[in-house]
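During the practical work, I selected for study one protein's amino acid sequence and its backbone structure tokens, as given directly below:
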Amino acid sequence: MSNLIFPIESHNALVAAAYQHRGYTADEAQQAARFSQLTAWYGIKTHNALKALHLDHLFGSGNETNPGCVPGAEIEKLPSRFAAAEQWNANRKLGQAVAFEAIEAAEKMADQYGVGIVSVDYAFHYLWGGGYVMDSAKRGYIAYTNCTAALAEVVPFMGKHPTLGTNPHSWGFPTQDAIGYPIVIDWATSTVAMGRVQQFKREGLTLPPDSAVDKDGNPTQDPNQVHALQPFGRHKGYGLSLINELVGGFIGGSLPTLRSRPEDIPAGTEGEKTTPSFYFQVIHPDAVSGGAFACGRDQAANVKAVIEDVVGHGNVDNGTILPGELEYRASLESEKAGGLLFTEAEIAEFKELADECGHDFDPKILKNA
């Protein structure tokens, strides 16, 4: 499948224009464009600008009755009795803007206290958690985030009704000196993300087995027939997804089946919330160092030795790769192309967005990769 090269400046201008057309501030629009550039640069098609704007249309500013995201909203930073932990009320501000600010705040606490935590209530989905921890790892930190996904789209293990989000976990490790890029362990707790279903539908592809069910609860590989997703690894993925719901519950998140579905709130329970929750944790590597590394190695050399042992012993020759390696390879392709790579089908959707917001964009000027 051939790709077209979308110049970064042109891509970001279109994305920012699309967000500002929907009422977002110039700063929010720039943060959204920054995030969308990040996803495209690293080949994350499931959470690129198209997914972000589609999500905003369905559940964010596009929901005229009860918008899940409010352009121009301000973050309220609540009083905390813990020096290395902050609690925020995002007031349904754009998720990408909140997430960038939150992880940077956690980094500042980690510089001072060794660790920093930011919990966010009343949020709107931040999309690809791996992007935030990757950025943080590049700045030298061990970073983690999880969130409750925008919708309950996943059936619990041995269940039939979707009561869980795709609920991602994302870790980033500063391993650039050892292998040239940060290790980023980032996964949805469903077999596939709903963004992947949308991508496969767009590209006319078939889903992997045991990744989704239709409206009758039967397994399906047809992205057009997907009603709900299945957790990966059976009970293991279910447990990891449940972690996000529990953390969200401790933060202040409400019932998973009502998230982004205010119209489903039962009569008499109008106080239920319908917003996601975020959790960020950043660790300074020095804060976890015991100092007693074998054979006279320092921390960096020790981490490198561990990685080499894991992928050694013939494993690389057999196909083993490290988490984050595919994204690194995609970044090299973007760098080689001198821009962001998109399929013709994706560019056609960008053209629709440009027409919607009155932004000048001619796909014919884009070059083939």
Notes: Residues 1-71+339-369 form a domain with the Hypothetical Oxidoreductase Yiak; Chain: A, domain 1 fold (CATH 1.10.1530.10). The chain has a mean pLDDT of 95. The chain has eleven helices and twelve strands. Residues 8 and 77 are 33 Å apart (CA to CA).
